[in-house]
Amino acid sequence: MINIRAFEPSDFDAVAEIYQQGIDTGIATFQTSAKTWDEWDASLLPHSRLVATDQHNQVLAWAALSSVSNRCVYGGVAEVTIYVSTMAQGKGIGKLLLNALVIASEQAGIWSLKAGIFPQNIASIKLHESCGFRVLGIQEKLGKIDNRWQDVALLERRSKTVGVD
Hints:
By secondary structure, the protein is of the alpha+beta class. Helices cover about 25% and strands about 35% of the residues. It contains four helices and seven strands.
């Protein structure tokens, strides 16, 4: 049984561990080590922070939103971050969590979700597409990892209920 619930500060150690697992793959982020609590908390919007837990309340995955700009015209646009623990991948947990994040984002007035995913992270791209995201294109050589350029696929999901007027 999987439970999707709001993130609680006591979840942070598990969240940071799952984040580090993603970092260790080399295909999840430009980040080289998990953020501290203060860095993590400051980088995300205060709403729409979710975790997926098992029947023992063990955190299996987490998702959150960050602002894309401090300009008021982008107030309804957010960037998605989602990480699934290595032991929980391939079980549909990411899809449950991402769909819940979409609902939470719309409840918070978000009309457009963005995602930047390394093109070789095919599982993440497919996950996002299964939740209504579409690939907009590829930004070439956006940044470096281990002194090698890395491209980023840009994805977007436009709400069908928020900002449609």
